[in-house]
Structures are given as C-alpha cells and as structure tokens.
Amino acid sequence: MFDQLYERRLRADIETWIERGWVTREGAARILADRGKADGRSRLPLALATVGMICIALAVTAFIAANWDDISRSVRLAGIVLLVVGANMVAARADALERPGLADLATAFAAMVFVAGLSLVGQMFHLPQDWTGGALLVCAGCLAAAWIGGSRLTLALAGVAAIVWVLLGLESGAPTTMGDQVLALCLVPAVAAHAVIHPARLSRWCSILLAYIVYLQWLLSAGPASMVDSPLFAVALAAMAGSIVLFGTAADHGGIRPGSVGLRLLARSAADASLVLMLCTMLVAFIGAWSRDLPGPELLSPAVVLPSALLLLAALAVLRRLERPQALLALLGVLGAVMTTAVLGLAPDQIVVHAALALGTSVAVAMAGIVMQQGLWTLSGHAAFTAVALWLLSETIGSLLGQALFFLLAGIVLIGMAFAASFSLRMAARWADGKGDAT
C-alpha cells in the first residue's frame, strides 16, 4: 500500500519537475521504469511460488504419513535423502542459470524436507523426544543451507527454529547455562549477517525478533527472580529498545558508508521495530500491567545498568550524526518514553506526572517523525497519543473535576509541544539556510 502511495506521489512530483526543467522526459521515463521493477507486483510470483512450495512439502509429508505402514524403513530413508539431494541439485542448477528465485525455493524445499525427515527418522528408530535439541538441530541445518545456497527463505526457517529453541529453553523453567547464552548470542549475528549480505524483509525481521528473544533470555537470567512482574522488566526493555532506535537512526543518517544497502536496511528495520516496541512498553506500563513498586537497590542490577549505558551511548551517537533539531526531537521522544516507564515505577501515585510525560513523549515522537520525514515515527506518535488520551478520558468519565484536569493537562502539553515544534522548525530552517549559503 505504501509503495503504491509513494509511486502515485512520485508520478505527480515528476510532472512538476519536468515542467520546471529539473528532469528531462527521458530521465523521468527511466526513473518510473526502474521504480516499476521494484514495486510489489514483481514479488507476487515469488510469493505465490513460496506458498506452492510449502504446500508441496506438506503434501509429501502427508503422503508418507498416510502410507507409513506400507512403506519399508529403507524406502523411507532413501526417499528423504533423494528429496533433499535432488532439491539441492535443482537449486545448484538454477543458481548456475542465474535464476536466484528458483534456487531459493529449491533450497527452502530441501530444508523443509530435512526438517520433516528429522521427525520421521526419530519415529522410525524410536528416539527419545527432545523438542529443544530438535529445534537446535533444525536451526543448524537450515543455517548451513542458507549460507551455502544464499537462500533467504531457508534463513527465515533457521531464524524461526532458533527462536523456538530459545523459547522452549525458557518454557522448561531450567536455569539457562552460560553455554546456551553464548550459543544464542552467536546465532544472532549469524542470522543478521545473512540478512545484510542477502537483503530480504523476512530475514531482517527474523533476525530482529531473534535478537529480542535472546535479550529476553539474558534479562531473565541477569535480573532478580521476579523480573517479569517487576517494572524493572519494562524499564530494561524500554531502555534497550530506545538505544536501538537511536543507534539505528544515527546509522541511517550517515553512520553507514554508501553502498552498504543491506546494513542500512537492517538498521532502519531495527529502529522501526524498536520504536514500536518502546512505545508499546510505555503504554502497557502506563495502564498498569506491571506492578507499580520499583525497589531502589534493584535499579543497579545489570539488567537495568547495561541497557541504560547503551542508551547514553546511543544518545551521543544521535547528537553526532543528526542535525541538531532532528537530534533534539528524537532524544526528547526516546528518552521521554524510557523516563515515563521508569517514573511509573518510581512514583506510582503521580498520575498527573505520568500523563504529562506520556502525552509529551508521544507528541515528541510524532514531531520527530515530521522533521526527519519518517512516516512510522509520525504514525506511532499519533497512535500513542490517541491511546493515552483515550485511556485518560475513560478514567475521568463521571468526574467533572477529573475531566477538567484531563483537558487542562492535554491543552498545556499540546501548547508546550507546539512552542517546541515551532522552535525546532525555525532551527531547521536556519540550519538549511546556513548550509545553502555554505555551498
């Protein structure tokens, strides 16, 4: 949908640019032709083929299961091996013919047969059931196939298997060993590096989700026993998400050398996902999902100190990379969200302070999105402001004094942020004029 909106806007702008003589008609035609190659329609055949490949893999598995007793053990093993080897040979041939989409599908099909084969082999030889170990084995196999074949779909399978492995370990309730933490930490760059070298939206989001799951695993082992029910969890999560938002934004604005398309896309996706997570954490804490008691000594636990230190480093990176008005608004929004989450635990009864911080933070995020021309920032800020306003309005219904306080608070915050926006826009205009004069 956003691609179509962008293309419609681009066509309208190009007509204006042609009239002003900035772009020739030949150049405009080339721009639109290149844009047409990158729209969603070009990915439609691959998406349909992916769904078809998954259906075929499920059909093969169901066929074997339906004739389980009629097929001898040797034939089952030989069939699994032939399917895996044959699919990989098709992938290699397609790659040699420069058909990367077909090669990707064939490699993913081989990986899915490999996953189904593990389950069938376990049943044939009555091996003990070990879902955690099986998920790790699937992850290792798919990761190796993804790197060897450069398959994006297989990497997504590896990412999902890694996430399942970590979650099964957490679900078991057993203490996480240092070896498991190191192995999980190694899986994150192994998946993310593939997403950088072979850019794909699916693999990028898999790597980001895996990174947060591994961070959750570390939080539960580094924090106090009741970490999940404590506001410490919200503070640690918001601080880490905020630091990734700032690091990703700084990297997207000049922190990555030109040509590193995959790294830039990963940084941008990580910043977008973390921004949504940070605001959701603030809103969930605001409505009181976590306990409102935040013991002082536990604030010094590694689960809070480490993400807070990263947040400060990220703030310095943003101040260094972004223009001053953009950096100030981004810092106001991100640091405000983390501070709001922390104040909810430190001062649980100060509802006026909570409301002011939450409303101001959401407006600051929306303003930063407008100044930086980041649509997701603007949309997320507006959504957070609407959620906070609706919650406050629902809490004050039936009390005229409460509603008066709500509207007074909302008015003061909006007027204050309006002055801040006006100041930021003037600063941005002065900076642009100064840059133009310098050039």
From TrEMBL:
Transmembrane segments annotated in the record for this chain: 44-68, 74-91, 103-125, 131-148, 153-170, 182-200, 207-226, 232-253, 265-287, 299-319, 326-345, 351-371, 376-394, 400-425
InterPro entries, per database record: DUF2157 (IPR018677)
DUF2157 domain mapped to chain residues: 16-153
Record keywords, A-Z: Membrane, Transmembrane, Transmembrane helix
Keyword flag Transmembrane: yes
Statement: the UniProt record of this protein carries the keyword Membrane: yes
Domain of life (superkingdom): Bacteria
Pfam families: DUF2157 (PF09925)
Gene source species: Pannonibacter tanglangensis
Protein name (Swiss-Prot/TrEMBL): DUF2157 domain-containing protein
